[in-house]
Specification:
- The complex is a heterodimer of chains A (102) and B (389).
- Chain A is mostly helical and 102 residues long.
- Chain A has one domain: Cytochrome c-like domain (Cytochrome Bc1 Complex, Chain D, domain 2, Orthogonal Bundle).
- Chain A is 55% helix and 0% strand.
- By secondary structure, chain B is mainly β.
- Chain B has three domains: 65 residues, no CATH class; 188 residues, Alpha-Beta Complex (Sulfite Oxidase, Chain A, domain 2), CATH 3.90.420.10; 111 residues, Sandwich (Immunoglobulin-like), CATH 2.60.40.
- In chain B, strand 3 and strand 4 form a beta hairpin.
- The termini of chain B are far apart.
- Classes of the chains: A mainly alpha (102), B mainly beta (389).
């Protein structure tokens, strides 16, 4: 199972919890995140709520501080169920692989 | 209406037809069910932008119209069961209306209006800002048909305490903890004769991805207020304090012109309200080639929040002098207005064109953008370079 497929499977479990959730996921399984440590946890956590194209789309304007703010927004404002330990993994992964801003 | 099984099958395995790839990397044209291929920004929630080629007609086709969602759970509503509730703490009664009730008991109204995302052209800001990286196509022009919101509010009985009207649609988040997409309008804008509950777009039932069976239409105001899949309208005496009003879709107070949303304003930030004067060249893409001595015409659209367009000005000398383009007839003051301008093709080389619109209120597109953290209100003078060869 690829990381994206696994992330989508996680998302699908959540979808089944909602009744008849009409969520179009087709197509997003083609998104390939950079292969580096933390990829699977990042993919699984982010894909609960949104497709992974949000990561490369914003990479050009992001750095470690911006990702830190963004990840905390996801948890504090949007209620993403991510453990403190995984938050660190995700922050490291995105800072190293999706941060083009100085 | 689809059964639940068909619905699941239809959406979870939604056909996304690959089409020709857009020029730049990471930009793909994909078709959602019922739509033609659009520029995919994000799959889920679905954010799809209209390509320039589909913005050339006076009315943007329903299947080409942009798609913008914040939350990923987007139900297809059963018209037999769908009801619009109109009530709230400052209403004297609660109405429960079916689509047939709306059509039967209230006056039918059609308005041509621009629907433009507040973040249209965010991807063109420099320095760049985070968010969906739209270019020019998070907008379109359509004929919206429905009933006046004020007719519904009067039927429900608005009392003197009313401050805002709050709108909720059927789309929700996947997690219960995520703030639902709920927006409010000041009571005076809700009672404006041009604010509609629309159930048709360009003479057809609203497309699913544009808010079926009914959406709010607020001509002149940014698309964020045009709540889709409407289910609840509440008249309230208090300012609505949900995330999508008090935190999102805000700009620095005093930074932009336009109607102020007093009950939502703080000393630091204020909600995006009206769209700004703007224009878009649709006849040519940046870098297009023109044939020497062959007549060529530049054309596009200009619009504002409803005062109407009084001029579109063109410069070919980096803004030292400006000459007026020919304006087309108006389609209505909230719609875009066409302009045309003859391009001089008598000499080889680059033709650098600047285009700016002027509104009847006297507003003119600026040379510089006003920076703001979320990249709203991009309306800088457009610059395009063509090549005569």
């Amino acid at each position: 199972m690829t990381c994206v497929a696994r992330a989508l499977a996680t998302a699908a479990i959540l979808l089944l919890a909602c009744s008849a959730s009409p969520v179009a996921t087709a197509g997003e399984e083609t998104i390939e995140l950079t292969d580096a440590p933390g990829r699977e946890i990042t993919a699984a956590s982010c894909a609960i709520c949104h497709s992974l194209d949000y990561l490369p789309m914003n990479a050009a304007v992001m750095n470690r501080a911006a990702w830190d703010k963004s990840i905390h927004k996801m948890v504090d404002r949007f209620g993403a169920p991510i453990s403190a330990e995984n938050l660190q993994v995700i922050l490291d992964y995105l800072s190293l692989n999706y941060s083009a801003a100085p | 209406m689809l059964t639940r099984r068909e619905l699941l099958a239809g959406t979870l395995t939604a056909l996304l037809l690959p089409a020709e790839r857009a020029r730049s990397a990471g930009e793909e044209l994909l078709a959602l069910p019922g739509k033609r291929p659009l520029i995919k920004r994000t799959f889920r929630p679905p954010n799809y932008e209209t390509p320039l080629a589909d913005l050339r007609r006076p009315i943007t086709a329903n299947d080409a119209f942009f798609v913008r969602y914040h939350l990923a759970n987007i139900p297809r509503l059963d018209l037999r069961e769908w009801r619009l509730r109109v009530g709230g703490g400052s209403a004297q009664r609660t109405l429960e209306l079916s689509l047939a009730d709306l059509k039967r008991h209230y006056k039918r109204v059609t308005i041509a209006a621009i629907n433009q995302c507040a973040g249209n052209r965010r991807g063109l800001f420099s320095p760049r800002v985070p968010g969906v990286q739209w270019t020019n196509g998070a907008m379109g022009n359509a004929q919206w048909t429905g009933v006046r919101l004020r007719d519904l509010l009067r039927a429900a009985g608005v009392d003197g305490s009313a401050l805002e009207v709050v709108f909720d649609g059927a789309d929700t988040a996947l997690l219960p903890a995520t703030p639902d997409f709920v927006k409010s309008l000041p009571i005076d804008r809700a009672l404006d004769e041009n604010t509609l509950i629309a159930f048709e777009m360009n003479g057809q039932p609203l497309p699913h991805w544009n808010g079926a069976p009914a959406r709010l239409v607020v001509p002149g105001w940014a698309g964020t207020y045009w709540v889709k899949h409407l289910t609840d309208i509440r008249v309230e005496a208090k300012a609505y304090d949900g995330f999508w009003m008090k935190t999102a879709y805000r700009v620095p107070t005093g930074a932009f012109p336009g109607t102020r949303f007093a009950s939502q304003e703080t000393p630091e930030t204020t909600p995006v309200t009206e769209i700004l004067v703007n224009s878009l060249i649709t006849s040519h893409e940046q870098g297009a080639h023109l044939e020497l001595n062959r007549p060529a015409e530049l054309s596009g659209w200009a619009w504002d929040s409803g005062s109407g367009i009084s001029a579109v000005e063109i410069s070919t000398d980096a803004g030292q002098s400006w000459s007026p383009a020919t304006l087309e007839r108006e389609q209505g003051r909230f719609a875009w207005r066409g302009f045309r301008w003859r391009i001089d093709t008598r000499g080889r080389g680059a033709v650098n064109i600047l285009a700016r619109a002027v509104s009847r209120s006297g507003a003119r597109q600026p040379d510089q953008l006003t920076p703001n953290p979320s990249g709203y209100h991009h309306n800088r003078v457009q610059s395009i370079s063509l090549e005569v060869a």
